[in-house]
Amino acid sequence: MDSITANNGIIHFNKTGYPAINQHIKQHNFSKIFILVDSNTHECCLPYFLSNLEHANNIEVIEIEAGEIHKTIDTCVGVWNSLSELDGDRKSLLINIGGGVVTDLGGFVASTFKRGIAYINIPTSLLAMVDASVGGKTGVDLGTLKNQIGVISTPDMVLIDTKFLDTLPPEQMRSGLAEMLKHGLISNETYWNKFTNFSELTLKDLDALIYESVLIKKAVVDADPFENGLRKTLNFGHTLGHAIESYFLSNTHKTDLLHGEAIAIGMVLALYISEKLVGFPQQKTQSIKTLLRKYYGKVEFEDSDYKPILELLKYDKKNSHGNINFVLLEDIGKTKIDCLVEESLIIEAFQFYLE
């Protein structure tokens, strides 16, 4: 697969990426190379990556705890301190090897340490490959509120190597699939239809779908790098999905949801709202709900859950002037941004989801 130029960086795929990284390191003569991993990727991914690196001397490995709960400013402080103690300077390179938590947090750390050092992202989860790999969004959560602190900053390079997917459990694969399904819904029906029999796809098929998903997101980001309009469409399903994810993270009586699991719920809710407000076809709402239920099952909600979830909507990053702005669909591939939705209709959508 051909490499993709995105923003000011470049995305390489599979084996073609390692010669590019080696050449990049050789050309830039970095004073020091740091590798950020979490406790999972340190064990499962780092040895394979290092085996493909020609310049493995003068490397320091920094490990953080795995999981969304550790995507915090406190974790950043720990990494900043490690970089300082290990003599990091403005000519250092940070290589982030992990899922979205590592690449988001590592990108933010690199963008702010010494007012900015070079970094490379190596996404190891399906979610990070199709989402965090493009667009330059970095940052951390504020408590349980998703991605409230961060900057837009482009890595020098991204390497998407699907060999890393061999290390992922099925639930993490499903989590990443949700973002690919979203890309289909906001872009075109042809891409969406490729997922109707996902279980029958081969690894070669998956490689091609990941590549196409990256191209879809790249086209949106190139047209609107700072999310003034079109880029908001990438948040389809995320307004309620992020609120649900945050609510389940903060509620000890609930089982935490992975990002993609929460977004799958958010997409069903957004489709029902789209049907009622902007005329999304009812038959498609039902068929998409059926497909998402097949992949993700059903999460139970109580009446008492709705108010705190609705309260969390006010922290959504698309909001402005006190309005909660939704992304809706008039049809597959036909989006409408900055839509206002009554709370009663949102609760109706939850009831539709539970049916």
Automatic annotation (TrEMBL):
A biological process (GO) of this protein is: aromatic amino acid family biosynthetic process
Recorded GO MF terms? 3-dehydroquinate synthase activity; metal ion binding; nucleotide binding
Top-level taxon of origin: Bacteria
InterPro entries of this UniProt entry? Dehydroquinate_synthase, DHQ_synth_AroB, DHQ_synth_fam, DHQS/DOIS_N, DHQS_C
Listed A to Z, the keywords are:
Cobalt, Lyase, Metal-binding, NAD, Nucleotide-binding, Zinc
The 3-dehydroquinate synthase C-terminal domain sits at 176-319
Please provide an example of a Pfam family that matches this protein in its UniProt record: DHQS_C
Q: Which cofactor does it need?
A: Co(2+); NAD(+); Zn(2+)
EC annotation from Swiss-Prot or TrEMBL: 4.2.3.4
> Where would I find the 3-dehydroquinate synthase N-terminal domain in this sequence?
62-174
Which cellular component terms (GO) are annotated to the entry?
cytoplasm
So what does this one do? Catalyzes the conversion of 3-deoxy-D-arabino-heptulosonate 7-phosphate (DAHP) to dehydroquinate (DHQ).
Q: List the NCBIfam families hit by this protein, alphabetically.
A: aroB
Q: Which protein, by its recorded name, is this? A: 3-dehydroquinate synthase
